[in-house]
TrEMBL record:
CDD domains: GST_C_Sigma_like (cd03192). PROSITE patterns: GST_CTER (PS50405), GST_NTER (PS50404). Pfam families: GST_C_3 (PF14497). It comes from Sporothrix stenoceras. Gene3D superfamilies: 1.20.1050.10, Glutaredoxin (3.40.30.10). This is Glutathione S-transferase. The lineage of its organism: Eukaryota, Fungi, Dikarya, Ascomycota, Pezizomycotina. It comes from the Eukaryota. Residues 19-109 form the GST N-terminal domain. Residues 120-264 form the GST C-terminal domain. Signal peptide: none annotated.
Amino acid sequence: MTDGPAAKRQKASTPDEAPYKLIYWPGLPGRGEHVRLAFEEAGVPYVDGAKQEDAVPQVLAQISTDNLAEGIVPNLPPLAPPILEHGDLLISQLPNILLYLGPKLGLVPGDDANAVYRINALALTALDGFSNEVHDCHHPICTSLYYEDQKPESVRKSKLYVKERLPKFLSYFERVLHAQEERKAGSWLYGASLTYADLVLFQCLDGTAYQFPRAVQQLKDAGGHKRVFALVDAVRARPNIAAYLESDRRLPYGEGIYRYYKELDVVLEDSVEEEKKE
Ligand SMILES: N[C@@H](CCC(=O)N[C@@H](CS)C(=O)NCC(=O)O)C(=O)O
């Protein structure tokens, strides 16, 4: 480390009108779906690299261990998609991409400079509880192993997730919405208008309901998280979102974050004691 690179870095210029491009794996919604939903709700055009013929090579070129991001200083090579390209800017990490896009797409209120950090906290929490943990229910040991090689652990984790974590995260978002209601702030997670946190929560719960249909239905029927489920329905009914969900741009779930395995479709009453004794 000899010189002071920060001072020498070439300045990237990203005009707002530069085209947006999502680089992502083809054939499944995945984490890229949160980026798509933001563009779709905002009605802002974007190029979806996942729908292009060379989608896989596009991703591989970025995440290759040979990629040193040469010539695109000060961008850095990404570890994994989703990746957003906007003019000279190339960034990865989904919550980071949403943090960048939120204000540009009008999905963060413009009258409070701190709003984006509160909205980011909501998005991160939804992704923790309804994306990362749900994914780990079918890959509890390691992502690099096949599901079939970690099945008993997946069943155990799913039972515990459904019994303890799913209700905890749902209750958290119910509490946030209750607080908003008490303040007469509206029925979205933050303030009077929809933000990208609402879109993230929608997608996360849509996927969680795909993986755990029985448990999610049970919790919905129990009526303890009415505000959360009403929010999911309200997002689904937004004109741009509804049109998108109807379109062939919306891909079905498959072998991605959210997967349906019958043996993991557990309910809250399923015993976890047996596994605990082993
Ligand atoms: N924390 C990252 C996770 C990225 C990630 O896990 N991407 C998946 C696709 S959704 C992937 O290709 N991972 C490859 C790997 O982790 O080796 C984010 O939020 O963007």
